[in-house]
Amino acid sequence: MKKILLLSDTHSYIDEKILSYVKQADEVWHAGDIGDLSVTDAIKKLKPLRAVYGNIDSTEARMEFPLHNRFMCEGVEVWITHIGGYPGRYNPSIRQEIYSNPPKIFICGHSHILKVMPDKTTGLLHMNPGAVGKHGFQKVRTMLRFEIDGEKIQNLEVIEFGNR
To answer: pTM score, two decimals?
Structure first.
């Protein structure tokens, strides 16, 4: 079993509250718009990190992290990308791949809107953790945490912080 902390859109922001949740996870997944790489460096000092770059990220971030990160965690195939859309409205650049070879979990960021929903057409679970950084329009900063046990995704929890 793996305990996963999923976050996105840090926009160069990380603090001790976020890091306290990092310490409780087995792995941390970041769905892009990292901002300053000190964010991912702080996470990597504590736990294994899987991440992708987002549209605001520097050349340095793009050299360290891929645009798409597709991997297995326990018995679950995961695909993380920053701008991916959601069921019924996938980004045109990935739509064909989603329908022809869907992962079990599809994760994206970018919108700053927390959303977890099944795609009844493909059977995948779409997850967007919202934004945990302080830059953006969101009134509440959010992250997700959950467990993957074999092929089961369980104990999903929304973590909320005030915006300022």
So the answer is: 0.97
